[in-house]
Structures are given as structure tokens and as C-alpha cells.
């Protein structure tokens, strides 16, 4: 089941650089693990913003929440979620 | 080059059904042609709305505009566009 | 899987009363059938508005969209959807 | 009498973890007590947010305010309230 | 129990004057009856707008909705509702 | 002359409790003095928020501003003001 | 007593030109009469919009409402009102 | 050339009083000098807010920006600017 | 003097095609004349919208308003205006 | 390919002046280098705000993001991006 998730990141300006870099590294590892599992299907950078547009593929709302809640950058994020489903015009087999 | 395009459709309530159906059929054909060409990479329905989230893959802003401007449903659409680019965490080769 | 769905209805002022009444009757029957099936778990009227707050219990985003898309009043509705999941404080067994 | 209450929590990033955990524990106990009493009828997590959608069942606006005002997390919350009443299509006996 | 209700009226420009005047007269009679009963405690005109700020005194959300739903101008109104309760600083006995 | 004034209070979370309590006590005394003078006609708590809806009865905009500007909690408030006047449907003698 | 009043005009596109011109002429005469009386102190056009920023000088909210309500273009206007008072830095004698 | 400029001031709550008073005094002197020069034509206080509505009379956008940029309170202000021009109904000779 | 002007066009769906085409042709001629005069310095299409971002170079707000007010498509436009001036970092001689 | 980029700068009030000045100097040098390369085609100051309207000329969304992301003031900016393309009415050869 697919969800569009948009994440905007606001890291406090006074956070020490090394602390921020550690969180970002954890975030990258966490994200890439989920991408490899097929949970985090797509992630794109919004040009000009510290934000991304992502497509998650999960079994339930619960799973979506837990995945997002586990993001190392979660406390510094503004997140919007929109449930998606297959579009009647889609020719892509797997764009459930 | 990728763009997120969100389209919300508002067909006038007093449009004769056959006219509306014809436009929708044209829209579907138009969309599927572009999907087949790889221009319209993804199209998902937003659950609960007459709206979609799409990812376009085009060579330029100009091409994006012309493709959107040519949509049969274009006059009845509210469209938002966000330029995307590769996310540093992305493991997908082709998520330019 | 639960979704909060808020529906605001705007029936055109110039719609003949009998046509409007017929659609509303169909809407009521459609809603009550889904409530009986457990799909439409809760429906409350927002005091002072021609709007409702509803909780749907469905298997997927797809099912949610099809149920909403099938509402007789759908063309006259503004709909917002929020995916819900079990709250860690909830003591209700069935508030998945 | 039912009210939809949506609560979004913003705990200051610099609050010590133990302090935050204590408040969250108090909040959970407070909430579960009210749920047990039937005052806090439903509480669901909004997937992707530190927010909940709740349905309160109280005797008056006054009681609603006092219950919300007493939330340990109250100072860190943005709250919206909508008064609900029985929907003419509802088949649920107790969805006053 | 008190509610703040703000009503903004948008009568279609093409409504015949006599029809509009009839509805307005019905609205005035309906409002004054409720004021006399103490249900509609206060009604003030917002200077510069075809809108009012009102304070309703009712037994329940249900009663509030039915009173508002019965307004002759209801179909032409945008309504916002806020539940009120006694302010700890209030010296007025009856400002429940 | 009547004005609707809505005040939302945001006291900094790191303000010492005794300091906050002192300001709140001053605010209450200040408000009750104005209520006794008839300047502050009504004050109601908005259920679920640290906010109030008030009706002021003053001789001029100037007086309104000075009364609001003098509120001990003024620096911590977001205030909206709407000028009111007698509604043609009002049956209350003194709802000028 | 001074008020800032901003008026945006939306005349229906299908209004016959002569009807519109008549209303506009009445509006101009009405406005110039009030300007001559000193009630309508200032009126400026907002560059690029069919809107104006005006300063009214009236005795009460009531008078302001009646003056605005009497505008021939009133039914086609969106109006915002802000009560003004003398600024402590003002050196203009008459900027009450 | 006239501009409507609306300024809302948000002085940090933790700014020492004497520092704030000094900036406010500088602001007043700066404003009164420009008023005396005819650059700052009008300044009114918005009742209930730490904000003003002003009318500037300048030769160019550049001059407007430099005057605003030079305000001692500029770093603590939210400013909106609207270019004005003579209204066709204005009877005031100098309301260019 | 430069202004950023953003124009969004909403031509009524029921306007006969030939009428619309005539207005658009007039608009194009009008625009190109002003561009040739250097008044309308830049005009770009916003990709995906029937809207443009333009830079006007005029002597005064008055001139800007008259040029915009004269647009054949003016009645069907939503327009926002922002006064611009030279940026301290600009290396372009003529970006007054 | 052209993009409209609007940047609003909010430098923390407690940032030491010399630190701020250094960043601003770096920003100016960075901007002027890109302007010289033709990447940053236009930059104008919005009168009355610490904000600019810019036109970037880049090969891709990726390049745009990297240029913006590299701005010394980037962490203190709110940025909006709109993809532009040639307007059918434009007479300027190079307003691609």
C-alpha cells in the first residue's frame, strides 16, 4: 500500500555540527535499509529546500507510523502524509 | 529531470456526462501515451480525492509545461509543480 | 485499518429539491449499508455545519478510495483523509 | 455529548529526556483513567505525526475544558475542538 | 452551555429581491423567537460585513446544530462554532 | 461601543512558575476591575485553549487599545479585534 | 475615530456594462459625498487590483457599518476593517 | 508616490528593558524626522496590536526600502508593502 | 522602477472560444507593445499554470496600475504586485 | 532553463554582528560569482523585506539545488522555487 510522505527538516541552528552529522548519517543508513527492503520506494530531494518527497510501500498505517517515528531526524521534521492508490490510467504494473 | 506534479480536477457539475466521459477518455489515452514514453513516470490516485500525485521525467521546464498544457482536463485542473532532484540517501540508480 | 475522513457537503443552491432529496436518500442508504458492514465505523455530524467526521475501517487505501468515490454526494463533497493507527495510550482493544 | 479533539504535541527539543518521559507517563495514566471512565471515548494516533484524534464524551464545555486543561502535556499542545452530534444516517445507538 | 457562533451570509447575487427579503424576514422572526427564549443570548453585527457574532445558550451540541440548521439563511451561510465556558476571571454570575 | 476581542496566551515555557502566577494574578485583578466598570462586558474561556472571547464596551478605538495594551499578559498575547454594532434582529436593548 | 477599510471589488463578469457603469457612477458620487463630509478621509487605489485602501473617520462602529453597508458596490465587495488610533510617534495633530 | 506599509513589531521577550526602550526612542525620533520631511505621511496604531498602518510618500521603491531598512526596530518587524496610487473617486488634491 | 507582477488567468469555462481567442490576441499585442517600449521588461510562463511572472519597469505606481488595468485579460486575472529595488549584491548595471 | 527563486532571510537576532557580516560577505561573493557565470541571471531586493526575487538559469533541477544549497545564508533562508519557461508573448530572444 502506497503513501506519499513529504518531510521538511529544521535542525536547530545551535546544534553542534558533529551531533547533527551523526544524526544525518544515522538517518541515511536507516533510510537506505528501508529502501533496500522496498518499504521506502522512492525518495527525491525538493530542489531548493531541506525537504524530500517520498513514496512508502507498507502493509498498514501502523507500519507507516512506526517507520516514520523511527527516523533519527523525526524530532526535527514536519511531515505530511497522503494515502495513495492505483490510478485508473496507470500503465505501471506495480504502481499499486 | 524529475518534477512532482499534483493535479486536482474540478469538472463543472453541469457538464453533460457524455462530454465529460469523452474528455476523461482523451485524458487517459494522453496520459498512457506519455507513460509509455517514460515522460509520465508515475501516477497515483490520492485516496478520497479526484486528484493525483504524478512524477514527470522531462528534459526541461518548457517540455513539462507543454505536456501539462496539453492535458484534455487541463482547463478543469488546479496544478502544483515542485522540481525534484536526486536525494543523497537514494539507493535507486534511476531516481535522478 | 482506520482512517479519519472529514466530509463537507456543498449541494448547488439551484439543484431541484426532489433531485437533492433523492441523492441524500441514496447517500443515507449507502452509508448505512457500509456502517452495517463495519466499514464505516463512526459518523458524527459537526454541529453547525453540513459536514461530518467519520472513521472508516478498511483493508487498504484502494478500498477507502472506492468507498468514498462511490458516495452519491461525492461530487458535492470536499474530503480530507488522515490515516490513523493505534495510540500507545489507548485501552480500547479494537481501536487498531 | 461528543467532541472531536485533535492534539498536536511539540515538546521542546532541549527538554531533558527523563523529564519528558515523566510527563508522557503521567499523560498516559491520565488518559487511560479518563478512557476507563468513558470520558475519553476514542484516541487514535495520526500516522506520521506526534498528534492524535480523540473523541470526548462529556456533560458540558466546562468539563471538556477542565479535562483538556488537566493534561500533563497540555502546555506543549496545539488543540482544536469541534462539537459533534448524532448524524441522521448513523445506525450506531450510542453515537450521540 | 455557551457557544460562540460566527455567521457570514452570502446570498446569491441573482436571487430575486422579494425572495431574499422573505428569507431575511423569516430569519429575523426565527432569531427573535430564539432570543426571547434565551437560546440566542447575543447577536451583534460585525461592522463592515454581512456577518454576525452570536452567543448561543443551549443544552447540547445537538440542540445547537438543530437551531443553526433551522436558520432560513442557513444554506447561504458559512458558520464557525467555538464551545465556550466560564472564564476564571469572570465576575458575571451568568456567564457560564 | 462594542468590540469582539479574542486573546490567545502563549507564556514562555521557561518562565519561572512564581513569575507567571504573579502576572496571571495581576491580569485577573486588572480584568475584574474593568468588568466591574462595565468596560469588559463579557469574558468567556474557549474550551480546550488558553484563549478567551471577550466583548469590550468602550468610548473609542483609543480607549480599547489602551485597555488592551495595559493587560499584564499583553506581551504574551495574540489578539484579534472586530468592531461590532447593533444587529437589526437583536431584541436586547443594550446590545448596542 | 479612524478605521482602515480595505475593499476588493468583484463585479460578476456577466453583468451588463451599462448596469455596472451605473453602479460605479453611484459609488463614485456616494464616496465623494462622504469624502466632502470628512467621513471618508482617504481613498487610494491599490496598484494592480480592483481594490482600495481607505481611512474612515466616524463617530462609532454603527456609523461605519451603515456607511459601508450603503455602498452601491457593497454586494460585490470583500471588506476588511481595522480600528485605528493615534500612534505615540505621530506628529500629525489630526491623526486621531 | 504613496505606499501602504503595515509593520508588526515582535521584540524578543528576553531583551533587557533599557535596551528595548533605547531602540524605541531611536525609532520614535527616526519616524518623527521622516514625518517632518513628509516622507512618512501617516502613521496610525492598530487598536489591540503592537502594529501600525503607515502611508509613505517617496520618490522610488529604492527610497522606500532604504527608509524601512533604516528603522531601528526593523530587525524585529514583519512588514507588508502595497503600492498605492490615486483613486478615480478621490476628491483630495494631494492623495496622489 | 521595477515591480514583480504575478498574473494568474481564469477565463470562464463557458466563454465562446472565438471570444477568448480574440481577447488573448489583444493581450499578446498589448503585451508585446509594452515589451517593445521597455515597460514590460520580462515575462515568463510559470510551468504548469496559466500564469506568468513579469517584471515591469515604470515611472510610478500610477503608471503600473494603468498598464495592468489596461490588460485585455485584466477582468479574468488574479494579480499580485511586489515593489523591487536594486539588490546590494547585483552586478547587473541595469537591475535598478 | 529558468527558475524564479524567492529567498527570505531570517538571521538569528543573537548572532554576533561580526559572524553575521562574514556570512553576508561570503553570500555576496558567492552570488556575484554565479551572476558573472550567468547562472544567477537576476537578483532584486523586495522593497521593505530582507528578501530577494531571483531568476536562475541552470541546466537542471540538480544544479539549481546545489547552487541554492551552497548559499552561505542557506540555513537562515526560507526559499520558494517556481520553474519558468518561455511565454508565448515574450519578444525577448533570451527569455527561455
From TrEMBL, chains A, B, C, D, E, F, G, H, I, J:
It comes from the Bacteria. Keywords: Aromatic hydrocarbons catabolism, Isomerase. The keyword Isomerase applies. SUPFAM superfamilies: Dimeric alpha+beta barrel (SSF54909). It catalyses: (S)-muconolactone = (4,5-dihydro-5-oxofuran-2-yl)-acetate. Gene3D superfamilies: Dimeric alpha+beta barrel. Residues 1-89 form the Muconolactone isomerase domain. One of its GO terms (biological process) is beta-ketoadipate pathway. Its EC number is 5.3.3.4. Pfam families: MIase. Pathway: Aromatic compound metabolism; beta-ketoadipate pathway; 5-oxo-4,5-dihydro-2-furylacetate from catechol: step 3/3. One of its GO terms (molecular function) is muconolactone delta-isomerase activity. Belongs to the muconolactone Delta-isomerase family. Homodecamer. This is Muconolactone Delta-isomerase. It comes from Chimaeribacter coloradensis. The gene is catC.
Amino acid at each position: 500500500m502506497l503513501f506519499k510522505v513529504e518531510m521538511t527538516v529544521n535542525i536547530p541552528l545551535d546544534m553542534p555540527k558533529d551531533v547533527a552529522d551523526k544524526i544525518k548519517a544515522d538517518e541515511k543508513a536507516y533510510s537506505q535499509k528501508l529502501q533496500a527492503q522496498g518499504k521506502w520506494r522512492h525518495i527525491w530531494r525538493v530542489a531548493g529546500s531541506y525537504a524530500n518527497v517520498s513514496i512508502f510501500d507498507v502493509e498498514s498505517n501502523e507500519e507507516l507510523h512506526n517507520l516514520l517515528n523511527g527516523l533519527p531526524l523525526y524530532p526535527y521534521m514536519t511531515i505530511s502524509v497522503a494515502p495513495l492508490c492505483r490510478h485508473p490510467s496507470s500503465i505501471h504494473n506495480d504502481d499499486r
